[in-house]
Amino acid sequence: MNERFADASDEALGQLLAAELPRYTAPARLRAAIVEGAAPPPRRRAAWLAPALASAATALVLVLAFLPLLPRTPPPDPAQRLVRAVVAEHERALMWGARNPRIIPAALPWLTQESGIGLTRVFGGDDRLMPVGAEPVYLDGRRGIALYYRDGDDHLVTYTVLPAPGLPVPDRRRVQIERFRPALLHEEGFSAWVWKQGDLACFLVSDMVSEADLERFKDYFVRVRTATEPVPAY
Q1: Which strand (E) or helix (H) includes residue 12?
Q2: Residue 177: DSSP 8-state
Q3: Is residue 182 a contact partner of residue 175, using CB atoms and an 8 Å limit?
Q4: Which regions of the chain are under pLDDT 70?
């Protein structure tokens, strides 16, 4: 047998081995182990994924169901929004002064041309309020004018006029001052009288917020209001 294997070629050797060597059937469990080892492992989902997806879906359904019932933030009051812009301009002038200061009444033609607002009459100052400047302004998308005054205690008082045809003056904030009823609004430590003259909104702003200052601020309002008449120039 060994001599036959020794003299055989490779091809003949293969045939002899196939014909004469005994064959044994592999156990069933060995076949199963080989097949299982050769196959790629099945992909397993993370144990937390299904509960997390279910929780997210439930939360989304609840949000969609209750969203129409949530209280909505009311839009800002238009008068308060304009007061905010006017007060911001007052603060800027308080810190830095007018951008291009002019003195009324000499500045009136220039103001009218730049702002589109004319002043048929204007408060030119007295022993209580002295004019310190005038300039055109652009606030909340509106061209307007700002006149600046100072009193004996160095309070800056700003009179601003802006076009605002549909602006409602808050009735609940109105204060009776002689024959006038302006609204008193507050913004960031400043007080503002707000009133309408035709389609123009007028504002008088200062830092007078205490009870004692308010009486003096009322007097300033009367002085400016009775002596000033703004009109659209075009």
Answers
A1: helix 10-20
A2: B
A3: yes
A4: 1-54, 56-57, 59-75
Query: DSSP labels for 69-99?
Result: GSPPPPPPPHHHHHHHHHHHHHHHHHHH--S
> pLDDT tens digits, residue range 14-54?
666 566 656 656 566 656 666 666 655 555 555 655 666 66
Domain residue ranges of the chain, discontinuous segments joined by + = 2-69, 78-232
- State the amino acid at position 63 in one-letter form: V
- Cis ω for the linkage preceding 22 (within 30 of 0): no
As a CATH number, domain 78-232 is 3.30.200.100
Please tell me the predicted confidence (pLDDT) of residue 97: 86
Structure tokens at 181: 């009823």
Place of tokens 């589109």: 116
pTM, 2 dp: 0.69
